[in-house]
Amino acid sequence: MQQTEAAVEISGLVKRYGDKTAVQGLDLVVERGGLTAVLGPNGAGKTSTIEVCEGYRRPDGGRVRVLGLDPIADAPKLRPRIGVMLQSGGVYQAVRAMEMLRHVASLYANPLNADELAERLGLDSCGRTPYRRLSGGQQQRLSLALAVVGRPELVFLDEPTAGLDVQARHATWELIEQLRGDGVTIVLTTHLLDEAERLADKVAIIDSGRVIACDSPQRLADTTREQDSIRFEAPAGLDLTALAIAVAPAQAAEPFPGGYRVTGEITPDTLAATTAWCASLGIMPRNLQIEQRSLEDVFLDLTGRELR
Ligand SMILES: Nc1ncnc2c1ncn2[C@@H]1O[C@H](COP(=O)(O)OP(=O)(O)OP(=O)(O)O)[C@@H](O)[C@H]1O
User: Fold this and answer.
1) Which of 57, 101, 216, 267 has the largest count of CB atoms under 10 Å?
2) Does 48 contact ligand 1 (Cβ within 6 A)?
3) What predicted TM-score, i.e. pTM, was given to this entire model?
4) 42 lines ligand 1 (CB under 6 A)
5) Domains of the chain in sequence order
6) Among 26, 47, 58, which is best to mutate for testing ligand 1, by the most ligand atoms less than 8 A from CB?
């Protein structure tokens, strides 16, 4: 059967809790394959949106289709095809880690090898430990393993690396990259921009219950390319007008004595003009740096807020 529909199609989604409207007319399409990172400040509506897609919450308005199906009405058909990693819970407290993983694997037709998966995620040493006695990071890695062991077509991961140590975070990233390489569609919420920059093919930025930007990390950063800058240090009080003429159409400034900044669309010619101007004065610029806009700058521009 050819599958042409998008992995996730959300249009005009509304989700309310009492008087509070957490999601207000949210539109998002996630194509099949690749990883979409959903970013947004606290309380933006990310988890509410994802939980509607997972069938855990009923929408108050709008339309949501996951693999072409209604997450609530078609749950029996959808559940075997998607993997869900919740921020917490969803696991029986007294069951040993490996028993749980092998049990869940046995429910699927073509599961991953549970022992290999546990080893990859560093869970092999705590396989006999009941869930409630696992550390927070181990519980999180087990939740990830449970979400992916059935070889789902689509996985929802809610902050999969929050609170993990560096080693566990890298193991998690490698597993996610492998899943993506295997053609699994991944939707991931995160507060970590480096995670989004490293993993995402597409980033959806959500603020106040709406998607305010959605594109590849590179294209999002490029939309504000005119804000890139070259910074360098040189003797204070050089002729800024001459520097501005040399680097035009970029602008030149000396925000503090001896600290120079060329701002605008920074091209190879702008850089060459800057260093040629220094050379014409017989000056060696110190600490010369090209600063490109990161996803973090874009996020700050769009939402006016830091991620946390
Ligand atoms: N069960 C609930 N009852 C009442 N209000 C809720 C409930 N769940 C979420 N909210 C509120 O809805 C808004 C959106 O919450 P949501 O958890 O979807 O945001 P989020 O973007 O995932 O936030 P975070 O980054 O903090 O996880 C918040 O103001 C939150 O307080």
Assistant:
1) 101
2) yes
3) 0.78
4) yes
5) 8-222 (3.40.50.300), 225-292 (3.30.70.980)
6) 47
